[in-house]
Amino acid sequence: MNTAGIAAKLEEQLVAQGRLAGDEPIVEQLVDTMIAALAPAVRQAAFELAEQAAAEIGAQLPIGSIDVVVNEGEPTLVLRGEESEQIFSTEDLEARMTVRLPANLKAALEEAADDAGDSMNSFVIKTLASGATRGRKGRRVRETFRT
User: Is 142 part of a structural domain of the chain?
Assistant: First the structure.
């Protein structure tokens, strides 16, 4: 996020409003004082908006969470995926299941497995395992940055 850019736009608007009030030195001084006084509040508001965005987006994610981290002084939203539990392995395959699929779905699965660098079997197992564990985990909204 670019909080500095947002603050600069707000400053421009305040200066423009000050010009409407007159071109007097006292008005310019009051606008400058107001800008200096509001700068910390504007920065705080930007961080709070980032936290709200992270909470709202995170609540809609089926897995993982959105964290707010500070990167070079700016709030940044970071997607944190939950590592799937290792209760399902692609090594000890004892059960067998036959599934009928539409040809286009099979092709899409083959392409997704190839993109992921997995065999079709491993990709389907990982995808099914993710879906099977997703329903058992509650949604988690967590704030990781407090200002």
Answer: no
* 86 neighbors 130 (Cβ within 8 angstroms): no
| CB 47 within 8 Å of CB 145 | yes
* Residue 19 to residue 28: CA distance in whole angstroms: 8
In a domain, 146, yes or no: no
Tally of domains in the chain = 1
- Round to whole Å and give the CA distance between 103 and 112: 14
Print the domain residue range for 81: 3-134
Is residue 140 one of the residues assigned to a domain? no
Task: From first to last of the 147 residues of the chain, give the pLDDT tens digit.
Answer: 788 888 889 899 989 988 888 778 888 899 999 999 998 898 888 888 888 988 888 888 777 778 888 888 888 888 877 654 445 666 777 888 888 999 999 999 999 999 888 888 888 888 887 766 554 444 444 445 444
CB within 8 Å of 77: residues ≥ 6 apart: 1, 50, 53, 54, 57, 66, 67, 68
